[in-house]
Design a protein that fits this description.
With 390 residues, this protein is α/β, with parallel strands linked by helices. The chain folds into two domains: 11-177, Rossmann fold (3-Layer(aba) Sandwich); 183-387, Dehydroquinate synthase-like - alpha domain (Dehydroquinate synthase-like, alpha domain), CATH 1.20.1090.10. 45% of the residues lie in helices and 11% in strands. It has 14 helices and eight strands. It has helices at 22-25, 46-53, 71-84, 95-107, 116-120, 183-201, 209-231, 236-248, 263-275, 279-293, 299-310, 319-336, 355-365, 379-387; strands at residues 11-14, 31-35, 58-62, 88-93, 131-135, 147-152, 157-162, 170-173. The strands form two sheets. Strands 1-8-5-4-2-3 form a six-stranded parallel beta sheet, with helices on one face. A hairpin with a 4-residue loop joins strand 6 and strand 7. The longest helix is centred in the middle third of the chain and has 23 residues, at 209-231. It is globular, with a radius of gyration of 21 Å. The chain starts with 10 loop residues before the first strand and ends with a helix.
Length: 390
């Protein structure tokens, strides 16, 4: 096991009716910026619950955060934070709203010339406006970590940054707030969380049996409860189990002491930036092909994954056959969520034949030429992976 520091100060209020906890979580003397997306919270009752809980607070609303939050939109909020003297940010929505809110929190206190330097990793977050979260879409795990992904429309960039200073002070997870979500978004959430686990688990063995078992438990839960959730969109117990699994997938506990990959995410970000493909769907496109290209490095873990998660044993063939079966089972899982895993299924997006070369160059231009747990996902390997995605 590798050395690690595990720190997670996020207070989680989980279950029905927990939005009422806002009353005690945010001091009444604080001026609050409430951030949200397209307004669905006003249709499903979440907005009313939040406003009731904060009726003694001063609220400034900032709607319109995109599914892939943009620097441009977030900077408009930063102007409001500074002008209005905002003391606290409350994110009400999914991971995108929270990611945008995290960037706002850091950018509002940034002392440098360009807050985009935070996203580029040129300047660390020194200070941030405190923030909390009411989660309405399980997927990203952003409710219990310090990670954020921001796009910049003017340059076509999509970048991630992370800091413990933008971790939510609290997150409210009420499964009932997610009942009105379209099936597509729920399926995306299952796929997103599943891939988060694979990025931390499907690497090489560094003798972390506990973390492996935790990861396998989350994967199995997502397979089982994700299916139940999609079959009955009003099943509270299934939704609760899925919601908590998505949080556990990326709150740091699975990553402690292990080797991590994240090449699938880096490649996927570029596909979203280029073609606007849903983040989770880019992951489902890339992951099976990356597993194929990197199968020699991941061989031991692929065999373990196939055995423990999908029940693939020696009776199902030799090692090579079992590795390929584990990869195919992964592809079938994404497809079972009605998420296509091939470019050919996205005919309306006019995905260019030279996309593998375009993405490889975009990553190279960022200095991302040694991705993966062993740093051997080169631009040439990126092209190979994306060629298999056709």
């Amino acid at each position: 096991m590798q050395n690690f520091i595990f720190y997670n100060p996020v207070c989680v209020h989980f279950g029905k009716g927990q939005i009422a906890a806002l009353t005690s979580e945010i001091p009444t003397q604080f001026k609050v910026l409430m951030t949200y997306g397209g307004g669905s919270i006003k249709k499903n009752g979440v907005y009313d619950q939040v406003m009731e809980a904060l009726k003694s607070h001063t609220i400034v609303e900032f709607p319109g955060i995109e599914p892939n939050p943009t620097y441009e939109t977030c900077m408009k909020a930063v102007e409001i934070i500074r002008k209005e003297g905002i003391d606290y940010i409350l994110s009400v929505g999914g991971g995108s709203v929270l990611d945008g809110s995290k960037f706002m929190a850091a950018a509002a206190k940034h002392q440098g010339e360009d807050p985009w330097d935070i996203v580029l990793g040129k300047e660390p977050v020194q200070e941030a406006v405190p923030l909390g979260c009411v989660l309405t879409l399980p997927a990203t795990g952003s409710e219990m970590n310090g990670n954020s992904v921001i796009s910049r429309s003017s340059t076509g960039q999509k970048r991630a940054f992370g800091s413990s200073r933008v971790m939510p002070q609290f997150s409210i997870l009420d499964p009932e707030t997610t009942f009105s979500l379209p099936k597509r978004q729920v399926a995306n959430g299952v796929a997103d969380a599943y891939t988060h686990v694979l990025e931390q688990y499907l690497t090489y063995d560094v003798n972390t049996p506990l973390q492996d078992r935790w990861s396998e438990g989350v994967l199995l839960t997502l397979i089982e409860e994700g299916r139940k959730t999609l079959d009955d969109m009003q099943d509270y117990e299934a939704r609760a189990n899925f919601m908590w699994a998505a949080t556990m997938a990326l709150n740091g506990i699975l990553a402690a002491g292990v080797v991590q990959d994240w090449a699938t995410h880096m490649i996927g970000h570029e596909l979203t930036a280029l073609y606007g493909i849903d983040h989770a769907r880019t992951l489902a496109i890339v992951m099976p092909s990356l597993m194929e290209v990197a199968k020699d490095n991941k061989r031991k873990k692929l065999l373990q994954y196939g055995s423990r998660v999908f029940g693939i044993t020696e009776k199902d063939g030799d090692e090579d056959q079992r590795v390929l079966s584990a990869i195919e089972k992964t592809r079938q899982f994404y497809e079972s969520l009605e998420i296509p895993t091939r470019f050919s299924a996205y005919k309306d997006l006019d995905i260019k034949p030279d996309t593998p070369q375009i993405v490889a160059k975009r990553l190279s231009d960022q200095g991302l030429t040694a991705l993966g747990e062993k740093g051997d996902i080169t631009p040439e390997k990126v092209e190979e992976i994306l060629a298999l995605c056709a």
